[in-house]
């Protein structure tokens, strides 16, 4: 039986940081379970959304930042839509995922790799270059043959460009990344 000693494990600063970054008051959650009931990915989660919210109220930083659910969340916002207290649960999930990334925790490495490849593509071109995204993802994960059947269907339809097309205003996107890098101390 898992027993949590709240005196030892409650991280008040973690709760405050999530509330500050998300703009949400997590104490408003009274565990009705609507978020979990509406989530299309609940069956794949190690922690259902309502347990994530309860863990957050209990200040369980390590358990939450290590859970797979954060990386599997599609941010479809069903949880937010169904919340009777108007808590933006999807934003909380995003904040937790960003905190997990900063803490170096990614129990779903393929999902993190895909996210990284996506963001790299946007950084370079101002938009997603799908072929480059998939090439980078496959190179980083070694999953070279996983989607061959799809590519055989898509390539003849010319739905994937072979060369990137930069957008007008690409510099504005670059400035967003620069501001983020400065904020995170990466420059």
TrEMBL record:
Alphabetically ordered keywords of this record: 4Fe-4S, Iron, Iron-sulfur, Metal-binding, Oxidoreductase
Renumbered to this chain, the signal peptide range is none
Which GO molecular-function terms appear in the entry?
A: 4 iron, 4 sulfur cluster binding; metal ion binding; oxidoreductase activity
Which PROSITE patterns would you find in this protein's record?
A: 4FE4S_FER_1
The entry's cellular-component GO terms read: plasma membrane
Report which superkingdom the organism of origin falls in.
Answer: Bacteria
Protein name per Swiss-Prot or TrEMBL: Heterodisulfide reductase subunit C
Alphabetized InterPro entries for the sequence: 4Fe4S_Fe_S_CS, HdrC_iron-sulfur_subunit, Helical_ferredxn
């Amino acid at each position: 039986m898992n027993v949590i000693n709240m005196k030892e494990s409650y991280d008040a600063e973690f709760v405050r940081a999530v509330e500050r970054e998300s703009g949400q008051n997590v104490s408003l959650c009274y565990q009705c379970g609507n978020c979990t009931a509406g989530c299309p990915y609940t069956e794949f989660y190690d922690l259902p959304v309502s347990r994530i919210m309860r863990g957050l109220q209990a200040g369980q930083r390590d358990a939450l930042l290590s859970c797979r659910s954060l990386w599997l969340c599609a941010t479809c916002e069903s949880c937010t839509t169904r919340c009777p207290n108007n808590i933006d649960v999807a934003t909380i999930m995003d904040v937790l995922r960003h905190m997990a990334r900063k803490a170096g925790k990614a129990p779903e490495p393929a999902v993190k790799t895909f996210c990284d490849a996506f963001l790299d593509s946007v950084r370079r071109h101002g938009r997603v270059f799908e072929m480059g995204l998939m090439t980078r993802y496959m190179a980083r994960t070694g999953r070279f043959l996983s989607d061959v059947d799809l590519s055989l269907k898509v390539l003849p339809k010319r739905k994937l460009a072979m060369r990137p097309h930069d957008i007008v205003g690409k510099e504005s996107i670059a400035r967003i990344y620069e501001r983020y890098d400065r904020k995170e101390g990466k420059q």
